[in-house]
Amino acid sequence: MFGDGTVALDGIDLDVVEGSFVAILGPSGCGKSTLLRLISGLETPTAGTLDVRGRGDGSKVAFVFQDAHLLPWRTVVDNVALPLELRGASKSEAQRLASAPLADVELSDALLRYPDELSGGMRMRVSIARALVTEPGLLLLDEPFAALDELTRQRLDERLRALWAKRRTTVLFVTHSLSEAVFLAERAVVLSKRPGRVVLDRAIALPEARGGKIRTDVAFARETALLYEALEEHGSRESARP
Prior knowledge:
By secondary structure, the chain is an alpha/beta fold.
């Protein structure tokens, strides 16, 4: 509940298995971002209980927001190295450790560039690498690709899915895009309009290996339709994007 009496979430009962990829969908204002902020510790619940394994160590949870929030005066490698420097690592050691997550997001050739020299998609990849540099057990992403064009978004979805398959970090991913949720996640959780309640919690019935062509598969269309129906019934038509 917020200070003005608004109840953002109500009766949320959600267990997330370690190493899983869970997409969270729902109408605008239903509490999706609030849920991530509660899990991250940025907000405190006014009722109920919340148990995040390992959250006492701040390095175990990483948050990627809609904006990349890169420091314009630091290079790509220095932006990614920053969390390690803040934890006491030397600049040279932090830069060395930053090279691995940058390689994972295919930016090894952009280490010395500055944020204003990067495309929007590249900036988001830097933001993801920065989140991964501390090797978090839980990665929270709040619509990180929402402002990008569709083709760039699909390519980044493919990179993120491959990265998850490699690292098996537990991921909670908030999105308004049904097709993005179906492509990325093992499991999709749909929230109702505010106060947000879980109205659908579904395992995505698709193979683990997912290339771009799977978006044209009948099974992909079926999963997307099921999420759409849940949003249509409990949310609003404009909140559901293919």
